[in-house]
Write a structure and sequence with these properties.
Layout: E1 2-6, H1 8-14, E2 18-21, H2 29-40, H3 42-48, E3 52-55, E4 58-60, E5 70-74
Parallel strand pairs: 1-5
Antiparallel strand pairs: 1-2, 3-4, 3-5
Helix pairs in contact: 2-3
Length: about 80
C-alpha cells in the first residue's frame, strides 16, 4: 500500500489531497503515473509529466525510481 499525497493543482484535479493505492513491491514512479492516468484520465498524465515526486527522502522526476510507502506529487509552483 502506498500513500500518495497531492499538492496544489494536482490536488485540485483529483479532488483530494491524499489516497492510498496498492502497488506491487517493485513499482516505480512510472507505474504510479500510469495508474493515476487510468484513474483520473489521460490529461492528468500531461500534468504528472512535469511534476516532481518526493519518494522517501529523494526529490525526483526519474520515472524509474522505486516507490516507497509514501510519495508526494508536487506540481511546479509559481512564486510571487
Amino acid at each position: 500500500m502506498v500513500e500518495i499525497r497531492y499538492f496544489a493543482a494536482i490536488a485540485d484535479v483529483v479532488g483530494k489531497d491524499r489516497e492510498s493505492l496498492d502497488f506491487p513491491a517493485d513499482a516505480t514512479v512510472a507505474d504510479l503515473r500510469t495508474t493515476l492516468a487510468e484513474c483520473y484520465g489521460p490529461d492528468l498524465d500531461k500534468m504528472l509529466a512535469v511534476c516532481a515526486y518526493l519518494v522517501g527522502d529523494e526529490l525526483t522526476r526519474d520515472p524509474s525510481v522505486a516507490l516507497t510507502p509514501r510519495v508526494d506529487v508536487l506540481p511546479p509552483f509559481a512564486g510571487g
